[in-house]
Amino acid sequence: MRVVVYGDIHGCMDEFLALRRRIGITKEDREYSVGDILNKGPKSIELLRYFQKSSIQMVRGNHEDKFIRYAWHEEQKGKKNPMKLTPMEQGIYKELTSLDLAYLRSLPFYLTIGMLTIVHAGVLPSTRLESLDKKEAAKVMRVRYVDGMGGFVSLDESDPARHFWWSELYDGRYGYIIYGHQPFLNPRVDRWSFGIDTGAVYGNRLSAILFEDGDPWRYEIVSVSSTRYTKIERPWILPNL
Ligand SMILES: [Mn+2]
To answer: Does 122 reside within a domain?
Structure first.
């Protein structure tokens, strides 16, 4: 048995299927995703339906969460929705059935498989995964850098010269964490964590990490190259050398 965890797919269905073929997925394997299967790329709805029909388990990413929050506001009668969607997001939202939304709402903020824990972005020193409130869950889906006190730093304020990548302050209390959210040019492997978003939608690669029998010390990272589907430019954060 292998535990297989996919990085952020963001609508890259073709790359996702190619990666499954390259891994040679069999019925013995257990498949997971770090979330953010939707948005930015071309085939969000196809991926969402594929996941619902499959036995792949996934945590909620900030992009899944955005549609959940948007739908909640839409359901508040007589109030204007304060959230704005991009044209692509509006297209996705229109396609969502009540079953799709129920599926998105059912997604957990973390998954534990023995010594492995999957979250979308990361954990802070103050994070208690067993008792997340709305505010803390939002951080688990979004954290990149933390300040010297371990506090959440927003993306706009992030400064690698002054702040810590969250995993530098992570003490292993939830075992080995597998996360996505921040695209890296190459997967980032730290003492207690694996960052496996390699920016598929930005034309780099789609990656998965494989653990033989769920053993954190017997892992392999498998990737396929991808097409660039978005014009958004972003600076790559390079792993520590
Ligand atoms: Mn994300």
So the answer is: yes
